[in-house]
Amino acid sequence: KTFQREANILATLSHPAIPKIYDFFDWNERAYLVMEYIHGNDLEELLSKTKTLPVEKVIEWSIDLCDVLEYLHNHQPEPIIFRDMKPANVMVDNLGKVRLIDFGIAKTFQPNVKHTMIGTEGYSAPEQYKGNVTPLSDIYSLGATLHHVLTRRDPRLEPPFSFAERPILDFDDHLPPALAAIVEKAVEFESDKRFASCLEMKMALEELRYRPLNMAAGNGSAQSARDKDVSKFFSGELTGQPEPRWKFKTEDEIRCNPIAYRDMAFVGSYDTNMWALHLQNGEMVWKYPTNGGIASSPVIDEENRAVLFGSEDYSFYSVDIRTGRINWSYRTENRIRSTGQVAHGRVFFGSDDGYLYALMNATGRFLWKYDLGSEVQSSPFVTDELIIIGSASGEVAAVDLSGGKRKWGVRAKRAVLSSAYVDPVEEICYFGSSDHHVYAVDANGGYTSWRFRTRGPVISSPTMQDGLLFFGSADGSLYAINAQTSREKWKFTTEKPIVSSPTVYRDAVYIGGTDEYLYCVDIATGKERWKFKTGGPITSKPHVAGDVLLVGSMDQTLYALPLVG
Fold first, then answer.
1. N or C end of the chain: which has fewer CB within 10 A?
2. In the chain, which residues have pLDDT < 50?
3. pTM of the predicted model, to two decimals?
């Protein structure tokens, strides 16, 4: 009957944290349940094989468990009480996501009806021993599970209902006090002192989660050990993936590239703000609001201690690095999605009004503009004599630095949103196009050296190291080709288009995908070293800042990851 009850309950449920059921049948007087195989480990096993678990990951799991319990408690036509929340019944799959297993004693909830006491000693709520089971009983069991995870003290080996005598921070004073308070409220002896619902508990956890958390504060070596321990047990593709040192959530999608300068990090968001954060811990220093979304990446004007960027409100801004106060702004005739380049005392950028602009970077004084005839969303590459930039018409133009006069131009068959890169030694200019090709042209005369064809538009901007050119394609691949001959050395393929641009650092290439992953790829072999899952597509180019890798995601979050192999 228990087995059949589990099958009947599971058949009515649909939630990412609940295993799918495929079939249920009797054969030779035995009952069989065919269900989704979860590749991973349960929390009890993780506790036995690790010394500590990353706090940020525990918070994430807690939120997901609240979510699935809230789903069960609001199930129609009758709520379902899980009744046996404990580490052994929580699986962590190979993507690092929690899954709830063993619905054998789950039961539909009927108010004012007593049930047989079923559960696990140490995790079950006091009222559960009297047969009075409510959704608040699951909250207690979840709290007991989290208390076990955070303190490493098995409640089955402790006196019953003695959590109040074992404050969490007594076991680990590096834990966030707010997290300890949430868990301790969940395990209150009297049910009316607990959270009123799993939704309320989830909201408290989310408020904690979206504060910038310095994962290494005061305990860097311990955090490093946590990352190493837990990564071993996320078996499968994610083995060894890094845990963020911190992450900062903005109010809308992040599409542009972050940048760091000294002890600060900067990133724009479609919430209309340019955000300045402490590089060490992700705490906000200031934000500067514009009147439009920001897709233009920030650039640093070191001489004038300013951060420069464009906005879809048609304006280009210079803002003081330390205070966030406006230095100057310049208005164009359309949205600005192009990232500026600071060089020779000037800043150069494109606008959707079809022009390349040159301004004095100290004052914003207009110098000249060059008409490309269609939207300019790529970023200029500046040499000692030329500015090279592409446009939506497919034209790539080289313009004289001083007066904005055309020197040469080439035309691809479709839009050039990819930003050019010029090899300073060979003086070859490389850029991608929506016509599926990457082009190599002479930087001085515009003569085409070669074209390399991919199977999708190339929005990604190429970069180069040791004679190899790296770029992504909307065919889902990251390419490494010989910069002189265009011969392919290797290709790393993902499941969805790549529009992010690669960053090369030491012996690895970092690039984001629209499949929501940030990839670390070996520069010599093209083999994946690790990948990190965000909550949205990544169009942002990763940025190396000391021992930290910054990357934005369309899940509205800026991540700071430790640079690991």
1. N
2. 105-117, 212-239, 565
3. 0.60
